[in-house]
Design a protein that fits this description.
two-stranded parallel sheet; alpha/beta; 317 residues; Rossmann fold; seven-stranded parallel beta sheet
Length: 317
């Protein structure tokens, strides 16, 4: 039997321990009463996480957890962050029954994407808007989200869906793309992206953990949907670098994945996280967010060392 001290801890288990989960876990560590565990596909990253006092296990699309009953034991909060494929979410497909049989489970979060709303010609969407993805990426997210929400409807699993706008933060922002010289300012008139700083994702998830509402969906975006060329320009000015010229969208050669991001044009309402969870955004626009990235990126790199690229590359979004 576990000792009394262990049982007083809250245990968070993350399927897909990437960028968002790392920032969330670091925040929870500061609270002192959390036991953290998660999965990765990389053995080196697994060793790094264990050195950070995070229990880590190998898991991917072809490799289920070796001993799910043992690894998931005492989990009270479960976050699913692994990217889906055409069949949906791998954690659902391999371990839904194991998760349903966790007796201590109080809260489940699924990190989805605002891509589930598809293209709205620049219009606004909220959580009541129809799910109608217009990209392969959005269709995969919509399928995975529905898999988990169906477990709430059928089995009362306490699932919450978090639809994330474009994620950025220290080590993963316009500042980084500008520095390496691959930032381009694409001009597509009337187009705007919604974004969310990773710290605001973390604080929203924590607010939901302490105020659960099973079956709820939440949009996570800041207060200003803005064209990407504005963000790149602002990042260049912050760093004292030349601003790249504007490139017309129709005449610019782009990889299919990059062009797909411009195919969807919508603005994300975030009223629910404010009104129902009491969230006050730390970074209501990209300007405050990029300033914080510049201030915190040195400390972020020092904490992660050579594993920073592994963490940010595994981000959800």
């Amino acid at each position: 039997m576990p000792g009394k001290g262990f049982m007083t801890q809250k245990k968070l288990f993350c399927f897909g321990y990437g960028y968002t989960c790392d920032v969330l876990a670091h925040e929870l560590m500061g609270k002192g009463d959390w036991c953290l565990a998660g999965t990765t596909r990389d053995n080196n990253k697994r060793r790094f996480l264990r050195n950070q006092n995070i229990k880590s296990f190998l898991f991917d699309y072809q490799q289920p957890l070796e001993d799910p009953t043992l690894f998931l034991r005492d989990t009270m909060h479960l976050l699913i962050s692994a990217p889906p494929d055409d069949d949906g979410d791998p954690a659902f497909l391999m371990h839904a029954n194991d998760i349903l049989n966790i007796p201590t489970l109080e809260w489940v979060g699924y990190l989805s994407s605002t891509s589930v709303y598809g293209d709205r010609d620049g219009g606004w969407v909220d959580e009541s808007s129809e799910i109608r993805p217009s990209s392969k990426r959005g269709s995969r997210r919509a399928r995975a989200e529905e898999q988990w929400l169906n477990l709430f409807r059928a089995k009362k699993l306490p699932v919450h869906a978090f639809r994330l706008a474009g994620i950025y933060g220290p080590g993963r922002s316009a500042l980084d793309s500008v520095r390496v010289g691959n930032a381009r300012r694409i001009d597509k008139p009337g187009h705007a992206f919604s974004r969310i700083h990773v710290e605001d994702i973390a604080q929203t998830i924590i607010a939901s953990m302490y105020k659960p509402d099973p079956g709820a969906s939440y949009n996570l975006a800041d207060d200003l949907a803005a064209p990407s060329q504005e963000v790149i320009k602002y990042a260049c000015e912050m760093l004292g670098l030349d601003v790249p010229p504007l490139l017309p969208y129709d005449d610019t050669d782009m990889a299919p994945i990059a062009r797909s991001f411009y195919a969807d044009n919508k603005r994300i309402r975030n009223d629910r996280i404010k009104n129902e969870l009491g969230v006050q955004l730390k970074y209501p626009t990209y300007k405050e967010g990029l300033k914080a990235c510049l201030e915190k990126e040195a400390a972020y790199r020092e904490r992660l060392g050579n594993f920073g690229d592994l963490i940010t590359a595994d981000a959800t979004g």
